Amino acid sequence: MNRDLNGIERDVILTGFMGTGKTTIGKEMAGELERTFLDTDDLIEELTGKTIPQIFADEGEESFRQKELEAIKGLSRYSPGELVLSTGGGVVLRKENVKMLRNRGVIVLLTASVEEILHRVKGSDRPLLQQDNLRERIQELLSSREPIYREVSDFVVPTDGKTPWQVMEEIYAGVREIKPSG
Ligand code: S3P
């Protein structure tokens, strides 16, 4: 696998819907690249001492979004290029977040089919997915977010039927390709 990104001093930022593999891929990739792995949800949990479901239950979504913004602001203590960052599925819905992330790195969109997402998130405690008709809920959220995900990302990697290593390989290739305009 050609994973040579050493000359590219930008973070690799993984975005996309819940269950598209951002955290799994991000951790693996950070290990390979010897970069620091961060996940915005983990940062928020560390910052608040609460779990994501607790924050939603006690304070509501808006307060969670504010904490997401704070977590992203806090990334400024890392040099751009130091991180592989996995972002919560709603991070890119705020323009301010996108602006900060763009300044640090390459924004990669991971996608998966509704079937695959359904399979991966079934039984999870994600607050936005606590509904009886999970398929419908995913479809609804996905269709409202899809245009935004596509607009803010530098390139897209579909993940259905691929191993994490195949996905990583595509990400490395994509990052290398956009370097000149980068
Ligand atoms: C959310 C995605 C979650 C988490 C929160 C809200 C969203 O992260 O940030 O439950 O709005 O899509 P993952 O995408 O890592 O599951």
SSE map:
Blueprint: E1 11-15, H1 22-33, E2 36-39, H2 40-48, H3 52-59, H4 61-73, E3 83-86, H5 95-104, E4 105-111, H6 114-121, H7 134-152, E5 155-158, H8 164-178
Parallel strand pairs: 1-3, 1-4, 2-3, 4-5
Helix pairs in contact: 1-8, 2-4, 3-4, 4-5, 6-7
The structure holds shikimate-3-phosphate.
Shikimate-3-phosphate (S3P) binds near residues 18 and 128.
Across the major sheet, the strand order is 2-3-1-4-5
Content-based structural category = alpha/beta
Would you tell me the overall average pLDDT? 94
Major sheet: 5 strands, parallel
Work out the radius of gyration. Answer: 16 Å
Task: Give the second-level CATH assignment, the architecture.
Answer: 3-Layer(aba) Sandwich
Question: Strand percentage, roughly?
Answer: 5-15%
CATH class: Alpha Beta
- Count every beta strand, where a strand is a DSSP E run of 2 or more residues: 5
Ends distance = 22 Å
Which segments are poorly predicted (pLDDT under 50) over 5 or more consecutive residues?
A: none
Shape descriptor reads globular
